[in-house]
Amino acid sequence: MVTIGMDYGAKNTKAVIIKNGQILAISSVLSGFDQKASEEQALNKALNNAGITRNKVKHFTATGAGMEATSFANDTVTEISADARGIIAIFPSVRTVIDVGAEEGRAIRLNEIGKVVDFGINEKCAAGAGAFTEAMARALEIDIEKMGELSLKSTKAVPMNAQCTIFAESEVVSLIHQKTPKEDILRAVHDAIADRITSMARRVGIEQDVALIGGVANNIGFIDSMKRNLKCEILVPNDPIKPEFVSAYGAALTAQDRIRG
Amino acid sequence: MSSTKYPTERLKCWGKAKSLRENYYKDFAEAHEKGGIRWAGGAWSFDAIPSGLGEDVWALTGEPYGATVAWNKEFATECQEAIETKGYARDLCSYMRNYWGSILLNKYAWPQFSEEFPKADFIWQDHICCSHSKWYQVASSLEGGIPMYSIDVSVGPYGELTDSRINYIVGQMHDGIKWLEKVTGREYDDELLINAVHNEFRSCHYWAAICALNKAIPAPLDEKSMYSLYVLGTLRKSAQWTADFYEKELYPEIKDRVERGIAAVGNEQCRVMTDTQPPWAFLKVFRYLEKYGCVSVGSLYTFSLIGLWEDQEDGSWGPRAIPDIEITNRDEALRALAEWNLSKPEWQHFYHPKLKSEMMIRIAREWKLNGVLLHFNRGCEGLSLGIAENRLAIQKAGFPVMPFEGNMGDEREFDITKTMTRIDAFMESLEFEKITE
Amino acid sequence: MELVHKEEKELFDQFKDWYKNRHDYAKAWKERTGGKVMGYFCTYVPEEILYAANILPVRILGSHEPQDVTEPHIFAMFCPFCRDCLAQGLKGRFDYLDGIMIAQSCLHVRQAYTSWDIHIPTDYSYYLPHPMHVQSPHAIPYLREELVQFKTSIENWIGRTITDEDLRRGIELINMNRRLMKQVYELRKGINPPLTGLEAMYMVVSSQTTDKHDHNKALESLLQQLPSRNIGDPGERLMILGSEDDDTEFISMVEELGATFVTDDHCTGTRYFQKEVNPTGDPLTAIAERYVKRVPCPSKDWPQRTRLDHIVQMAKDYDAQGAILIQQKFCDPHELDIPIIKETLEKNGLSTLFLELDVTVPIGQFKTRVEAFLEIIREEDLF
Fold it and tell me: What is the pLDDT of residues B212-254, one digit of tens each?
């Protein structure tokens, strides 16, 4: 039986189609102003890749910030539950999953069947997420894809304010003026974001194994900072489900759970 | 009419509560016209004391006023911007900023009673949170100088009360009365004080008794409604009209609802409590919870801002008994008043979060709760004090907790959409689904 | 501005060393004396009683490093200082403490104490209620009774009585420390203060973490050499006032721009040592009186504002041209005082600059603002 999970993110709308637990297709389109159009686009792209028509889909569950406004889904599930459901299918040993996306960071503790035990979302004063990374990439005139790699070349830790994004941005400007090497600044930026995320995650409680998902989990510099903070291994999903698709995958699995009853 | 799990009924005394509250704000505005005097201070002030100055003494307590302003988002923002222009920080208590803004704009939150903000004749305050006295220190100077007296009550936990601690408070009270006489030119009447103290015993006892009735399943009251009812005690707990309303109207009505199994939320399937003040501009979160058949039965905040509690004979938590004492003179009245107030549960966490955690866990058990929603309230340093440790302790005791950040009085700091999503996730984790009609 | 010779520069090295290596110092003190060390929050703690009991009081301060361990314990809207303090405990840097205590003043720092009490095992822990209504005549007798209770608690802990003689000894030791630091500050009133604000800060803050027997000796030696020291023209004469502040990086940045801090009102400054205990009569009453009547923390300054006159007078006495108002982010008591202080100082002819502090500060941005501030003062000098 075929189900679809769709994640209406702030930046991208992602779809995952599964059949009896196996992944048939994955798609991602930019979330435009017209949600219905983005939804349609992502859906059709995925259906195309899977080589199936819409009527073959038994159940469609939506998740993400825009989930309530869905035009096609049968029901919804929160990203928090979807993250947990998705990650347990990929790494059965995970008990804490940290999701860092464009707009926010979340930490979720789950049990062995993927049920959410506790969760936290980072708040005003520690809102360091993907958007901040992008702003820093611009300030340092670096390709965002290259940020992680370059930061790993750093030889020196430069402390950066872990609390306030605004302060942190000014500190980056000061560091640039002091001619601090880019890789050291980058490492400081990654460390600062990681500090904020870890702070929030500690509130929820860290239980191994720990997994990292969401767009920012593609950044190897950030993963490195997180490993150093948490002092443990971190599992990051890759093919076939990359970090930013775990929510949509979890939604698809939830759809499957719901019809199996 | 849709059928729900339990029968529901509107509260009969709802209208009365509403008019009592409106009259309070009207009386304050018209005090001078009636030849009386009026004072401003906190909800925790010893309002029984200025009552001894006569039967034409009216009051305006700051926190409920700040909450009233907060309900009106546009007015609140105007107030906050006005005071921010004067250099006062955004992270200060939002009730205080709403109040100051009202003064600066010279606008009363009840324009039907007075367009302008009525200036108090004197300030009569209490002090336990750092902002308390400073609030009125600033307010006084914004008003061009109003005589001010404040009583420090931060003497440690009730369970560790000593003679010298209570003497410190009673000493300030005695001095306060002499100060009142000087400032108002009136002679003090101890009989009026004694009556006021007896009224206060009743108000605090009966409000707690009403909250204790919410142990029933289904709960006869939901917290959103309770806000409109507990407020009277925060306006003037020592007034006869407050005590009478709680004892003779509200308590019997709620008792009757329990006997007949009347529910606040017809589809009650999930019971929670909250804590700290709610985000006043967004009380619809409570209506949203109801979509899940989820009722908030109250909170330590709602129960004991005014209500006083103690162990009952059967070991359960219930209203503190009305002291069976005869008060014959001023000192006895003041001493009884101080001792009575010091037992307030909402005054204990100022010394250690574990004191509050214990009480919250007790409520979770005795009111049979499924979970707890904690409002990490950026608008109040006093009541958010220690809240992170409360969360840890409540979780450790086995109750799921959903924290959400916000601000009771500054709607710019509250994200309603994100909070609703969070509620969805929390309900999912508790395995409660939305109830479809 | 720096015309200081190398040997003269070393005058404050001892204080700097004590401050920077305060944990090592306390551990060595313990080994040397076999005595107990009490960590404390807030300068309202009556150190006189601790010294009377031969206990070393050590103020718990932050380390100015970003940290990620306090979020589960203290809501992020409370001041960075209290969170930084708790972080030190959670990270095990104060493992050598035998006890912790706090004297009641502001709300925020109370949480550092209570979370420490819950999560970090310590042999002894005490919350000292302390009057907030210090302007009431009942404050002194009330505090005295609290000190009696506290003294008994300490006696039970150390297993011996603290006599009036012990108390007088403690009083005199701390009074001496206050007196000597005041004498150093007096020298800053002159046209060419012989020490910088940074050096003054090292001196005062090291007193909060060092045995005052040692500190007094260092102060006496300092006072012999200071009067003849010449570090040149101070440039713009500044005051710094506000919340807890031991941000040495910030102070030295300002002074490197050609200005000098000539005085202060904060609690790693004059608020700590201003006002001695009047040693006549009953020692506990005398101690209570000192803490009730000292320059208050804003949380205790009501209904009258007594800090204002004090600050204005200090600005005159030290001939300050400008004031930097610093405030720990989210600190409510200071936020409630600063607008009126700013207004009052400006009415009295001082330029002011307001800055919010965190555990680390954006030094580059702050430098720009301080430069602009100093330019304003320099322009006014031309008239």
Answer: 999 999 999 999 999 999 999 999 999 999 999 999 999 999 9
Q: For residues A68 and A170, state if they share a domain.
A: no
Neighbours, chain A (3 or more CB pairs < 8 A): B, C
- Subunit contact A195:C365, Cβ cutoff 8 A: no
| Shared domain check, A125 and A83 | no
Chain C's closest residue to B89, CA to CA, is: C335
Judge: A162–C68 Cβ closer than 8 Å, yes or no: yes
Q: In this predicted model, what pLDDT tens digit does every residue of B21-34 receive, in sequence order?
A: 999 999 999 999 99
pLDDT tens-place string over residues A99-134:
998 777 899 999 998 989 998 887 665 455 677 777
User: Best residue in A173, A174, A195, A206 to probe C by mutation, most C CBs within 10 Å?
Assistant: A174
Token pair 């250690």 is found at B352
C-alpha distance from B156 to closest chain C C-alpha (Å)? 6
Q: What's A114's domain CATH number?
A: 3.30.420.40
Q: What number is the ipTM of this complex?
A: 0.95
* Residue C34 touches partner B, C-beta closer than 8 Å: no
A 10 A CB-CB count for B390 gives 27
Residues A114 and A208 in one domain: yes
On whether both A208 and A169 belong to a single domain, the answer is yes
Q: How many domains does chain A have?
A: 2
Residues of A in Cβ contact (< 8 Å) with C67: 162, 195
Q: Which residues of C touch B145 (CB under 8 A)?
A: none
Contacts by A33-40, CB closer than 8 A, 24 or more apart: A35/A8, A35/A66, A35/A69, A35/A71, A36/A71, A38/A8, A38/A13, A39/A6, A39/A8, A39/A13, A39/A70, A39/A71, A39/A72, A40/A71, A40/A72
Side-chain-side CA neighbours of C112 within 13 Å: the count stands at 29
Q: Residues C112-147, buried b or exposed e (16+ Cβ, 10 A)?
A: bbbbbbbebebebbbbbbbbbbbbbebbbbbbbbbb
| pLDDT at res. C7 | 58
Q: Are A111 and A54 in a shared domain?
A: no
- Alpha-carbon gap: B429 to the closest alpha carbon of chain A (Å): 5
Min distance C352 CA to chain A CA atoms (Å): 22
- Three-state SS annotation for A19-32: ECCEEEEEEEEECC
- Domain span at A77: 1-91+238-261
Cβ contacts of residue B326 below 8 Å, gap of 6+? Answer: none
> Same domain, yes or no, for A105 and A216?
yes
